Amino acid sequence: MDLDVFVTTHRIEWDRLDHLLHRGRSLTGEEADELVALYQRTATHLSLIQSGAPDPLLTARLTQLVARARSTVTGTRRSSWSDAARFLTASFPAAVYRSRHWWIPTAVLSTLLAAVIGWWIGTHPEVQASIAAPDDLRALTRPGGQYETYYSSHPAASFAAQVWTNNAQAAAMCLVLGAFLCIPVIWILFVNVLNLAVGIGLMSSAGRLDTFLGLVLPHGLLELTAVFVAAGTGLRLGWTVIDPGPRTRRAALAQQGRAAIGMAIGLALVLFVSGAIEGFVTPSGLPTWARITIGVVAELAFLAYVYVLGGRAARAGDTGDVEAGERSAELPTAA
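The structure corresponding to this sequence follows.
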């Protein structure tokens, strides 16, 4: 492509589009039709320049022009309660459902790894000695020790808020940092698995694994599921960078990234529930079976939410992405 000839040929159209955009609402019907036609043509010009003869200054100018024209043609749109309802009943569960082939294997492998490392710690006194001194280990694992008092060490409301904040940050980091070729996600996931494994190993060596599981399961089922969903989605995002498929890497990453941001919001709500359980149910005086039952019910409710509402929305074509009218225009690529 001869860029100078191309610019000379189409500059009048771009200037005319810019002039019409400055006119705003004073356009006649004929001028409005002209604006739409010029917007479509300029979008095609931008695509041709990007693929055939990329020029930073010209690309920046046309990108801005196309964005302004698109905003004028499509108009502005305000979010409403219906958008929030659609997100909670369709977009978020659909995104979780569609990423199940990533987060379910992540959950299974992480759980197995935690069990293996926990068994290794619990059956090897020399490993336990490398974690802490014997007196410190006894302070952790004895009846009324730190593993038990941890959940009642602060007022329930503030403890639940702190847990929710920490877990939401971990989930958001998995979702956002997945774009860095999955490596940060794997590290965050391993740290969570290792913390769980240490608790399993130390409490099992003290013969109190049942007590530990009775404290962890009520909130841990839902909490860990949310972390696994975030990690699996982050890994999927990272793999999109490596293998975008038939789409351009930019378009594929944009779609997965928008869905991941939505999932961060949805998972924050899920973790709010698990944080409330950890703050109010786990340290309560309820029998162990009752506390675990509450955790199991919360977990089953979330899975039903994902597989029923999310499955239905996914089969209807919902990808968890924003609506088509809210996305950046994907311009045609020249052959």
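The CA atoms of residues 122 and 206 lie 8 Å apart.
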